Amino acid sequence: MPRCKTRLISRARFGVLEEQCLDPQRHNRPAFTSGVGELDEYLHRFAVQQSKKGIAVVRVLVDTDLPKTILGYYSLSAAQIDAAQMDARTQQKLPRYPVPCFRLGRLAVHSTHQGLGLGRILMGCVVARCLEARKQVAAYALVVDAQGEEAKAFYAHYGFTPCQGNPMILYLPLGAN
Ligand SMILES: CC(C)(COP(=O)(O)OP(=O)(O)OC[C@H]1O[C@@H](n2cnc3c(N)ncnc32)[C@H](O)[C@@H]1OP(=O)(O)O)[C@@H](O)C(=O)NCCC(=O)NCCS
Q1: In what order do the strands lie in the sheet with 161-163?
Q2: What are the structural domain ranges in the chain?
Q3: Topology of the domain comprising 7-173
Q4: Which of 41, 44, 153, 177 has the maximum number of C-beta atoms within 10 A of its C-beta?
Q5: What's the mean per-residue pLDDT of the chain?
């Protein structure tokens, strides 16, 4: 299991929220449900193995008063994207071979806690992690595969742009290092 730091986030409604690496000994994965079967199944069945194999880093958000309950989670991996999939202005700035990026494989909030700002907190955690990681290993953008139109709207809300040729893949340039 990869080691990672936790970060504490104070929220009046939840007490202290903490971002932690997914740990099967500490976190109750079967109880997590987001309303999207594929995202739930990933956490229940595949996330631990993928973390161990170095395919994805999976982090969860918990309330330190109820630390077993997963309020939300996300997975991040290294990836690349063909610059031709980006908008014309961005393409001009990039080489003609695939550019490095991070892939936000999955992000979900527990169904009973949606609409309370946890998705926003998770997105903040994701971007902060990417900005930290790319001090060591270059990455141009954060890329996400949206699982449906609602997810696509959520990412568009945060400034992600749909890829040319596949609008369900969206990207967010991370800006200058
Ligand atoms: C999509 C999801 C992650 C959003 O999390 P959430 O905790 O409900 O969202 P928040 O309450 O933090 O909302 C954050 C912001 O996103 C906006 N938002 C939330 N869902 C949205 C949607 N579907 N479309 C557009 N904007 C959305 C909110 O209005 C809010 O905007 P504001 O910060 O400007 O006020 C959550 O609803 C979820 O897990 N859904 C099921 C799984 C899913 O579809 N995951 C998407 C990734 S594949």
Answers
A1: 7-11, 15-21, 57-63, 72-81, 99-109, 141-145, 166-173, 161-163
A2: 7-173
A3: Aminopeptidase (3.40.630)
A4: 44
A5: 93
Query: How far does Cα 6 stand from its chain's mean position?
Result: 15
The better pLDDT of the pair 8, 92 is held by: 92
State the Cα–Cα distance between residues 13 and 117, nearest whole angstrom. 10
Q: Could you tell me if the CB of 124 is within 6 A of ligand 1? A: no
As a whole number of angstroms, the distance between CA 102 and CA 59 comes to: 15
Which of the listed residues 71, 73, 106, 109 should we mutate to test ligand 1's pocket, taking the one with most ligand atoms within 8 A of CB? 109
15-37 pLDDT per residue, tens: 899 999 999 999 999 999 999 99
Cα(93) to ligand 1 centroid in Å equals 31
8-to-5, 11, 18, 125 alpha-carbon distances in Å: 10, 10, 5, 11
Degrees to nearest 5, angle at CA 120 with 28 and 114: 55
CA of 136 to the centre of ligand 1 (A): 30
